[in-house]
Amino acid sequence: MDKKKVLIVTYYWPPAGGPGVQRWLKFVKYLPDFDIEPIVYTPENPNYPIQDDSLTSDVSDKLTVLKQPIKEPYKLAGLFSKKSSYTISKGIIPETKRQSLIERLMLYVRGNFFIPDARKAWVKPSVGFLLNYLKGNNIDTIITTGPPHSLHLIGLQLKEQLGLQWIADFRDPWTTIGYHKQLKLTQRSKQKHKELELKVLNTADRIIVTSSVTKKEFEGLTSQPIEVITNGYDVETVGETVLDAKFTLAHIGSLLSKRNPEVLWQVLSDLVIENKQFARGFQLNLVGYVSDNVLKEINKYGLIGYTNEVGYVSHSESVKYQKQSQVLLLIEIDSEDTKCIIPGKLFEYMVSDRPIIALGPKGSDVESILKETNTGAYFYYDAYGMLKTTILDHYKAYREGSLQPYPIGLKKYSRKALTESLSKLI
Fold first, then answer.
1. Structural domain contains residue 130
2. How many domains does the chain have?
3. pLDDT, tens only, 190-218
């Protein structure tokens, strides 16, 4: 029997780096195990702010990857300010009071002239190309994944013209995502975003989200079926790793300006001052982009001398850091809008066999998952006492050689198990 074919429309694909590429790279890897043949449609000349060539090893030689050119406004914007264009294209938006005139202008243009986002010009040519391809290749199911949410407009138009099955996958929310408020949107632009969001949610046959918080939000906007399929972990072969000799707390990934828990820096500062033995053995490893605001706060608390700013590394290198660190840090912005954010690295953290300390808003999906899997401790931004006690307990266990987590029920978060759930929807 021939495998069922499904077309996946995604902006992020190797050699793109960062978390956005991982989800569908892994789904595509495992779908053939469930008698589904994936076909990937992606831009030919994208403007990826981060690249990671190591991820290409997960792309099968047998996979059909269709590519069409895309016009990228960030490339044009780079002629005016390369640094600002690069920063904003990564989703890193400076605080309002620190924005330059060119940054304020770029944000206004991005928010009001490119709705839903800067990749909107790819919609029309993609629909024209895919209409012919779908008709000639016996494909009756398409999946679009956003952000960028403009890709859902490709699915919307193909659904309206061909009547095929369309599944819309939301890796992040649309109008309630944190940075939306920073785009200097006019009332008319806000309304346009909401109209497009509603149309997508009510036209797609099925909607996939990565968190139960997003599912609850979308249930207030549509009666279409919504499934939660989280991100997950894959079996990573990185060779033998040895635990750090020092008591390392490591954060893997971007630390944006608002992802800056003063309570954590205060606790670490006090421990360094109060405990000479702790001070001799402690190191804070920051693996990935770190905003100047975060570094200034760390410096304010006298921790720069204990901080190793590693910078961006490949995915395989980041896995090594996860496995060799004594404790892993997961930090989210303390905001109502971030309760639904489950960073992809959480699941890799969970199988790294290292304890996790997470900070974020009350009632988040991350808090629930950590509790359910017994993989770490979750704290709010005002939990000084409990956070200090936990770090001290971890330090004592490290000194005794007994620091380790005792996870339960992780198997359902494996990429293969999650792909099986996806295959049932297809």
1. yes
2. 2
3. 899 999 999 999 999 999 999 999 999 99
